[in-house]
Write a structure and sequence with these properties.
CATH superfamily of one domain: P-loop containing nucleotide triphosphate hydrolases
Helix content: 40-55%
Shape: globular
Distance between the termini: 86 Å
Number of helices: 44
Structural class: alpha/beta
Number of strands: 22
CATH architecture of one domain: 3-Layer(aba) Sandwich
Strand order of the largest sheet: 13-14-12-15-16-11-17
Largest sheet: 7 strands, parallel
CATH class of one domain: Alpha Beta
Length: 1021
Amino acid sequence: MNFASFYDKLNARQRQAVDAVEGPVLVVAGPGTGKTQLLAARVGKILLETDAQPHNILCLTFTDAGAHAMRQRLVSLIGPQEAYRVPVFTFHSFCNRVIQDNPEHFGGRLKELLSDLERIEIIRKLLTELPTDHPLRSGYKNVFTFEGHLGNLFANMKKENWTPGLVQRKCREYLAEIPNDPNFIYQKNSPYGKKGEPKHSKVAEVTDKMNRLSAAADLYPVYQNELERASRYEYEDLIQWVLRGFETHENLLRNYQERYLYFLIDEYQDTNGAQNQLITQLIQYWEIPNIFIVGDDDQSIYEFQGARLKNLLEFYRRYQDNLELVVLEENYRSNQPILDAARRLVENNHLRALSALNLGEHKSLIAQPAAAGTSPEVWIYPTRKQEIADLADRIEALYRSGTTPESIAVLYRQHKQAEVLLRLLEKKGVPYQTRRPINVLEIPVIEQMRELLHYLNDELQKPFSGEHRLFRLMHAAFFNIPPLELATAFGMRNAEFGMRNWASQQNGEFPHLSRVMQLLEIWISDAANLPLPALVEKTYNQSGMLAQALAQPDRMLQLEVLSSFLAFVQSECERQPKLKLARLLDLLQSMDHNRLRIALKQDLRDVRGVQLLTAHAAKGLEFDYVFMPDCTATQWESKRGGNQSNFSLPEPLTFSGEEDALEAARRLFYVAMTRARKHLVLSYSARGDDGKDLMPSQFIGETGLEAKTVQADETSRQNSALILLTMSEQPVITLPEDHVIDTLLGRFVMNPTSLNRFLRCPLAFYYEDLLRIPTTPSEYAAYGQAIHGVLQQFFLKKAPKGQYFPDAEVLVKLFKAEMQRRRALFSTAAYEQRLHLGTEHLRQYHEQQLPYWRRRAVVERRIDRVEIHGVPINGVIDKIEWLDGGTLRLTDYKTGKPDNKKIQPPSETQPYGGDYWRQLAFYQILMKNAKMFIETVSENTIGWLEPDAKGRFQVGKITYRSTDIEQVEQWIVETFQRIKNRDFTRGCGQKDCVWCAMHQKNQTYAASWSNADDEALDDQS
């Protein structure tokens, strides 16, 4: 054993911790203070000075990487023979070993690990089977609104070892304390209540949340029963089973208590409730246990996983009479200026172990030895584009000067903050690595594959029902169909026939399209007869996907993408031998909805580069150069209160309240800062991409560092802007022959939807308004159409004698009939949920709005054959009412949530005004030029058909000046002229535009193509 020389290198405080072999020891450490070395030295000291054998020492850590690092340190210290005899486990691997070694106590439990997809499916099954008036369903359009919350709750209950009864008791206690909580009482007179009165709306909101939480906790046993029935388990179950096993089998517990004489726990501040209870069970045999705990209270950053700083404090209080407390302050990583700035920051936290214990101890990190480098800096940029451009240049300069790229890190709160910088580095040829996992489902070729499978499934269910998918699908690069051939064919096609039939009759005029149509015929048959993996493999080969992948410069990556998706299909077929295509597509959509991934299965490659990491992922790492861009309040402080959602947990079940969440964010900022060895730069921009001012994170000021304004070099800024423009280039298409376009334009009439669509993206207008590519309504659109149809019928119904309008039940009956007509457009669960919700909303709407309805009115009035300045226009107005003053009121109904931004007039951020503002102005123009009524329009309203948070149905009123109407008329004329000039070949280039994406990336999406905003206008001609 080479312990003596190793021991000599320890500082005084490290030796103090190592020398206290017997009894409990609590080491409060700081970053870079040599915790792994300390734990290894502790093992060596035990083996040297006691009769304990290596197998009597239990080391527990939190990650496989941590366990590996511990093992390697032990090998270097005590040699491989003894090092590999020391049990070093993660908590989960330890429990797994207990279960495997004692099958008589856990027989039959371990079947197969539950996949993320299976978890979602089980939770969805639970929600679907709930009655529609259950607290987790009542009042929500989406049956699965709380599926993510429910999964998180069940995971937290396992991590913290909570029972449903405990959760419900805490909810009751929390509600009982509300009358005494000043946050729920008006502290001064206001328009909403007098001083001392309860805030009724806030009390009601919190009461609803607690009721939902109690109801959700009730489902936990049902969830566990479903896991048992499916022979599945979760990682958290491993600890739960061992806890129960130790409680019910005393001999089992005694065996492990007597086996392990010494316990070493790393990163103790990260333990959750269940892990802490496991430790307690193991050491409770000893009145004064030999347990050595290392924790850094300032690096407790895993609260979202259930980790709680209070476990560290409770350990001290339990054993304080016999405890050796050691504070490690000598830092072997960063230079002193970096440590001082980090200290000033973290001292603003109140939830710190040494402060809470009130022992007069403090932790002030001292660089040992004095490290080289520079003082940390804060840079302020005028704009975010300048910030990213300058950082990319500085990183490139470091790389070109010979700095090893892996010694440079860019740290941030969320992956999306680094997307632009990542692409700039790629364009500049700077190697980089990011730990952001690659989701195969987001790769364009797999999105195209899914769209193909959707088409085949549609055709299996009903011939020619997949027509709406064909046009976009045919743009996939592997089909190799010229876009001009596609546009011409779809412009000339006879919509009465399926495209496959029509293309087969064209006598070779569209050869590429005809070839693909023939393949589709074959694959439709294959979809009914081949196993799913064989179907996928066959389409890979025959479609050209495989050939295209092999022709790419990154062919290995492309092949790994195809292989990963095929492997997923094969694994799901193994789990469910009778899996059909429709079911597979449902599973994939569930994964989309819940942001689940098919991880790319790629070979390990030695790619060294600049590290782009989240602050969480950077914990435990260190770099010579650390850049922390985008240090704004939006990115850091806006995350506070993350648990205060529809499923917020009452104290003491919460992991963090609002103030605690701010402190957790500060600890995360501290962790990021202390990754730097020599150079640290914090930066933010004064204005965002939208031109709005940005506030720096308060953590910047708390570091005590002086900020300086920095501007990117003008040439650099222009070069970066050019690169970024190249990345988001607006796609340009080639139009079919003139006679085809003439035919399409010959039938075109302007309406509010086409005007809005052209202003948003001319390319979208071309496909949706000229070519009229077939689409199928989304569930959202189908629901909106049903509501509109119901209101039209209701206002035309004859009212009972003595009433102006029929009763609410008539409205409900009409709605149920309309929903039944559209039932095929909904999933079973969505149909039931929207039927229940629509019924409830319409009854409330009838009660609230009945006093304001005018007896004289017309509904769903179509106005056509109108022309202004040579532009043909038309539209459908939901409701026209005659007011007492001899004027008219125009109303348009919206089925979405109230959104006042859409009714605002033109501004700097909305140069054309909101969509609804333009729509009702368009209706005024229609009314004026149609000359249907002698009365003029005096009121314009948007009637939202979904209640706000207070249960009220809002009415948005819009007032126009004559100049507003003239401006919209000008836009109509200018837009129509651009259309006649065929100025719709260039797209908007926006990331969320599906038509631009189709051309930029040959990309399609396995989802409904109907745009929810288009339903809101509801006036397609």
